[in-house]
User: Which sequence fits this backbone?
């Protein structure tokens, strides 16, 4: 380990904290805690000084790669630049230090923000209402599919047991279906990488609860027959769920609501730059069409124009209930709100426009040295695979990804979607400039040459990092998941 | 304002390379019938100065704990947050990264998660913890799914002293998954052990309690574990991690899964989120855990480092057979908690917990002297929170307090019909004797 664990930096007697004075009488602890539940052994937390803490975590941060470090074309994740103003706004005391139970009168600013963000996101998606409760995309999926389940059950329709997903779907889609008590039916994509209408017709029926779809899909392609798809599912009595992971491709150009989708989740950490936090917190608001509004989680935020007053509405008898305590990742919502106010409708459309321009530009440049299995206009992302002659040298996508690290880039998403062998899924986002894109292209071209001339260079990559590839199989076989004190 | 770098000439260059004349051609695959033919109806974009002003002025419509003295808790707590936390969280190599899929350039995040897992295990006395859950409530729901899968018993008994919103979240998840949730009542502010014993049966897969419970009461965890084990039900306990500075680690009490809300560990109130769910269990259940787990691995040069491990449980591998659908979690909040635990250390966490105890005890004594006010459930030992019963309406009291710069406690009538005129009061290390005395004086009606 380059940096010792904080636990190994501990020296008894060191201290990094100072607490408010204990200005009330200290009484016998035994009189305040039942004897048999008093802690016997202190937890082995580190004893360090403040500068130890600061240096330790600063050094850890230096072992990381973020969007602020460099290009991060992780497909399906929309690693766009995160404006600094977002962080400042989320830390305003009126937001960061407001208690969720302090009451409506004392929370009008927060309620207005929730109410307005609902309106904005509804407009962007073409939906009637939004809930901000879900904490991440997968949590949004859970919420959305439960809303669909509630709708079917409310109509007394208990025979719908299946959720259909294309074989290009995110893993969270089938996992969500299971969590909601549904079986997953996977349908094959057609040769154009899109939903195969015949396949869909074959499986759709009176047991169909919903079809979950990403559009543009995980290949970066727009489902051109979306209206027909919607008709097929709706005619069978099923509903259409929109996985919003790829929303960054179409803002201001098209709206899921207009495509026939009934439910959508957003990923505010992706599309609205809130940021990703090393794996969260995200936010996964869910939007629904009018007929599903009664099923939204409780409470919703409403406005009474007569009193000029925002308030919580808990009186929602058909609601699926709550999916999270309080009202969602409010701190994340502030950042998305700030971002939307900064860009406005025009700016959001421009963001999508340039995200798509950047992706198509990259794809065109890479065509000569990589295979593009579905080579036509893409949206915000696209898939490439290594050329045959490269693969013949025993080079896999993983090797190329690892070699990209040596060139200073974060690798793309790899081995996803599952339907393309050796896939590299590249999403540049709109915030990258032409020089960066060109440098990335040059690196990939160079790597494909290296693959032919010196495949070992790729097999052993990365070379520039202080740790090389890990034996992950061994780590899973003999898991060491925590530090233990020497006793 | 926009954050795109393209100059007009670059746009032209790029279009030329693609061989088209306008970006419109890149959107031709969207059928006309679904194209939005108007501009999005949103407020026009703002410059940074105006944006800051507008959002700041909105924030000023909220009350907050730097302006008011607060006695409000109920699952969201004001604790001292060392300044180092925000400074380190704002290291943007942390917050602008995503899930550490590429361990060679993510050792910072991975090591921090490993340290978080260790901290949670040390506090709870459990063997393993994951990288975090959305919040305490969803962690509870996921723990219930774990337990019912493990025991193959589909009924779960939950104490009504568990946070009401957590119970509501649990019910939502349980309905989805087809798990039956039965509530066991409370008596005198604690889980009623007699009813619990009666409600237990061989069909119960798990018993869920909160300790300290929603009323601040310290439950008889040992007895509850004993009762549950009699029916081979797993025990899930929801804890306030701060309380574990003075209360015995649940792992030592025979608990199977410990979950909780980590907001107390250095995470701001933020009107209810983002917070930090955690989940810890025994080694033998590790493969049922949801979400990310970090483990130690060795690289090709023999160096030790960290990777995401046991991924065969997760949605991106197992899809519909995954232990959960969770993907993004609350990694940055887990980092905040790790920094908090490192700063406080083994002595600090104990000191915070003791201060909470002493100050709560003092407040109980002081408020109990107010005419027309009595301490509810007086026999119970409490941590950080307690309930008072008043002759006056809670709303009326809170209005009076607010005028004097005090945010009063939670009106329990909001969640428990039978507890109208009861207030849940929270006292942490951040409250001073002077503030507690002021609470009493204003409550009594002093102007």
Assistant:
């Amino acid at each position: 380990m380059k940096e010792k664990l904080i636990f190994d930096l501990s020296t008894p007697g060191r201290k990094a904290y100072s607490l408010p004075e204990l200005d009330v009488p200290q009484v016998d602890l035994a009189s305040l805690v039942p004897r048999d539940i008093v802690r016997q052994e202190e937890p082995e937390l580190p004893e360090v000084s403040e500068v130890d803490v600061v240096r330790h975590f600063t050094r850890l941060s230096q072992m990381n790669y973020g969007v602020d470090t460099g290009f991060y074309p992780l497909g399906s994740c929309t690693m766009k630049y995160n404006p600094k103003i977002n962080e400042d706004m989320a830390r305003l005391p009126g937001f960061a230090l407001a208690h969720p139970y302090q009451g409506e009168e004392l929370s009008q600013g927060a309620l207005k923000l929730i109410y307005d963000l609902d309106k904005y996101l509804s407009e962007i998606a073409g939906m009637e209402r939004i809930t901000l409760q879900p904490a991440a995309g997968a949590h949004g999926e859970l919420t959305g599919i439960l809303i669909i389940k509630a709708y079917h059950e409310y109509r007394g329709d208990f025979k719908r047991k299946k959720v259909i997903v294309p074989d290009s779907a995110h893993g969270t889609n089938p996992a969500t279906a299971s969590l909601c008590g549904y079986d997953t039916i996977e349908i094959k994509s057609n040769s154009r990488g899109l939903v195969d209408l015949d396949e869909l017709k074959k499986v759709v029926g009176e047991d169909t609860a919903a079809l979950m779809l990403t559009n543009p899909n995980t290949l970066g392609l727009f489902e051109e027959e979306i209206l027909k798809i919607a008709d097929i599912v709706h005619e069978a009595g099923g509903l259409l769920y929109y996985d919003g992971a790829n929303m960054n491709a179409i803002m201001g150009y098209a709206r899921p609501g207009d495509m026939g989708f009934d439910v959508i989740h957003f990923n505010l950490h992706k599309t609205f730059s809130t940021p990703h936090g090393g794996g969260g917190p995200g936010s996964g608001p869910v939007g629904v069409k009018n007929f599903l509004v009664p099923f939204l989680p409780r409470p919703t935020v409403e406005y009474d124009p007569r009193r000029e007053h925002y308030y919580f509405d808990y009186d929602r008898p058909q609601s699926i209930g709550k999916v999270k305590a309080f009202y969602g990742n409010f701190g994340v919502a502030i950042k998305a709100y700030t971002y939307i106010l900064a860009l406005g409708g025009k700016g959001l459309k421009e963001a999508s426009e340039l995200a798509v321009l950047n992706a198509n530009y990259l794809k065109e440049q890479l065509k000569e040295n990589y295979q593009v299995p579905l080579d036509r206009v893409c949206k915000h992302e696209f898939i490439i695979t290594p050329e045959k002659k490269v693969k013949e040298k025993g080079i896999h996508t993983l090797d190329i990804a690892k070699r990209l690290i040596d060139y200073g880039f974060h690798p793309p998403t790899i081995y996803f979607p599952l339907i393309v062998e050796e896939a590299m899924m590249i999403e540049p986002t709109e915030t990258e400039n032409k020089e960066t894109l060109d440098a990335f292209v040059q690196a990939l071209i160079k790597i494909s040459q290296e693959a032919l001339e010196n495949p070992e260079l790729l097999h052993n990559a990365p070379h520039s990092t202080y740790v090389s590839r890990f034996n992950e199989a061994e780590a899973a076989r003999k898991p060491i998941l925590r530090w233990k004190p020497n006793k | 304002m926009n954050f795109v770098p393209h100059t007009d000439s670059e746009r032209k260059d790029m279009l030329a390379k693609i061989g088209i004349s306008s970006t419109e051609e890149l959107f031709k695959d969207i059928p006309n019938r679904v194209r939005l033919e108007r501009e999005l109806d949103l407020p026009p974009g703002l410059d940074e100065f105006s944006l800051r002003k507008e959002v700041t002025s909105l924030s000023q419509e909220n009350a907050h704990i730097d302006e008011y003295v607060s006695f409000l808790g109920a699952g969201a707590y004001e604790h001292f947050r060392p300044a180092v936390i925000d400074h380190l969280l704002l290291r943007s190599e942390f917050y602008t990264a995503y899930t550490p899929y590429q361990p060679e350039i993510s050792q910072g995040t991975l090591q921090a998660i490993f340290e978080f897992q260790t901290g949670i295990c040390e506090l709870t006395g459990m063997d393993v913890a994951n990288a975090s859950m959305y919040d305490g409530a969803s962690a509870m729901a996921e723990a219930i799914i774990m337990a019912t899968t493990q025991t193959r018993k589909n009924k779960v008994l939950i104490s009504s002293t568990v946070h009401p919103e957590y119970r509501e979240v649990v019910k939502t998840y349980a309905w989805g998954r087809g798990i039956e949730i039965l509530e066991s009542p409370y008596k005198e502010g604690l889980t009623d052990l007699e009813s619990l014993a009666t409600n237990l049966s061989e069909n119960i897969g798990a018993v869920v309690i909160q300790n300290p419970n929603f009323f601040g009461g310290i439950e008889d965890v040992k007895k509850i574990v004993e009762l549950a084990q009699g029916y081979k039900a797993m025990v899930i306990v929801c804890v306030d991690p701060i309380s574990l500075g003075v209360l015995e680690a649940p792992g030592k009490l025979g608990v199977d899964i410990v979950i909780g809300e980590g907001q107390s560990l250095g995470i701001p109130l933020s009107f209810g989120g983002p917070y930090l769910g955690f989940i810890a269990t025994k080694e033998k259940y590790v493969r049922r855990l949801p979400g990310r787990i970090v483990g130690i691995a060795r690289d090709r040069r023999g160096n030790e480092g960290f990777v995401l491990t046991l991924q065969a449980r997760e949605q991106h591998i197992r899809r519909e057979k995954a232990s959960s659908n969770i993907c993004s979690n609350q990694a940055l909040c887990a980092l905040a908690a790790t920094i908090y635990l490192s700063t406080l250390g083994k002595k600090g966490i104990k000191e915070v917990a003791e201060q909470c105890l002493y100050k709560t005890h003092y407040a109980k004594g002081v408020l109990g002297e107010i005419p027309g006010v009595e301490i509810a459930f007086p026999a119970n030992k409490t941590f950080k929170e307690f309930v008072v019963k008043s002759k006056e309406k809670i709303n009326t009291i809170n209005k009076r307090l607010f005028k004097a710069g005090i945010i009063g406690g939670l009106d329990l009538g909001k969640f428990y019909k039978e507890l109208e005129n009861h207030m849940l009061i929270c006292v942490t290390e951040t409250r001073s004797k002077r503030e507690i005395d002021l609470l009493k004086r204003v409550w009594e009606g002093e102007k």
In short: Chain A has a mean pLDDT of 97. DSSP finds 16 helices and twelve strands in chain A.
